[in-house]
Fold:
Amino acid sequence: MSKSWNRRDLMKVIGGVAGTSAAGALLAHATAGQAQTNPAPSMRKVPWPYSPLDPDPVAQRSFESYYKFRCMYGAFESIVGTTAEKLGAPYTDFPFELFKFGEGGINGWGTICGAISGCAAAFCVLSPKPDVLIDTLFSWYETEPLPNVRPKGSKFPEVRVVAGSPLCHQSLSRWSKASKKKIYSDERSERCASITASAVHKSILLLNEQAKGTVLPAVVLPGKTPGCMTCHEKGGVLENTRGKQECGVCHTALPASHPKKL
Ligand code: HEC
Ligand code: HEC
Structure:
């Protein structure tokens, strides 16, 4: 049988060990801690209130945050952290560090780029309609020569590449080929910090646009993908795959027998 503890039970147990005055102090401490781990309902509900931000200082902040816990943290912390500071407690108590996991396409797996996944998480916290923001940002990231923001404190020459994919793997490897630098180099860290700043800059513009009441247009996916999707995605004759990213970067050559039309 489980027993629910009341204040007197707790005093008895702690008192037995530490004496009653110390027990009172301990109990006060325990309840204060409890209040802190029970954030106000306003913070637990998304979206949080958002008012437009200046993209330049937030992008700069993301560059600096990158060097603490890397890309996904840098992106999320700069956007949501700046907003949280405007709103005050309990918003500032959010455990931002959890986004460390996004580093290197999630703990070095080279999957989704942490800069854009951090921004996607920020959209979900700050926007009532995050889907169109995510699609717009991801499509931009796939096709834009990046980084296109050069933060203060940058030391190395900028080498812009088109990632061609939302994946960390393609983005890093194309950059390494173009820059002739190693992946575990200071140049690459700075490049990813600047990619983070570029994605954050773009994300703030999108959030601000939406906050003004602009209805952002649905994204027209680039490359061959829309064509492929007609047969292979939802509602197609095959409906045997899922995705919005450019199919052509991996499926470079389809066999001659592959149907052109059905
Ligand atoms: C007109 C409909 C249609 C379109 C458009 C289409 N496919 Fe297919 N695809 C098929 C069919 C049918 C098959 C054969 C499926 C089978 O035999 O199981 C196939 C098979 C495939 C396969 C597996 C076998 C193979 O041939 O390699 C891949 C991969 C593939 N398609 C990728 C793509 C990509 C990438 C695009 C866009 C460039 C695309 N498809 C566009 C109908 C289509
Ligand atoms: C990041 C690389 C990558 C991207 C991008 C990608 N694919 Fe694939 N796709 C693969 C791999 C790897 C397989 C597994 C092939 C295998 O096991 O034979 C696969 C499998 C498939 C298959 C099944 C093939 C079969 O043998 O039946 C289809 C159909 C397919 N992909 C279509 C697409 C379409 C459509 C897109 C774009 C929306 C796309 N893929 C994007 C890498 C990719």
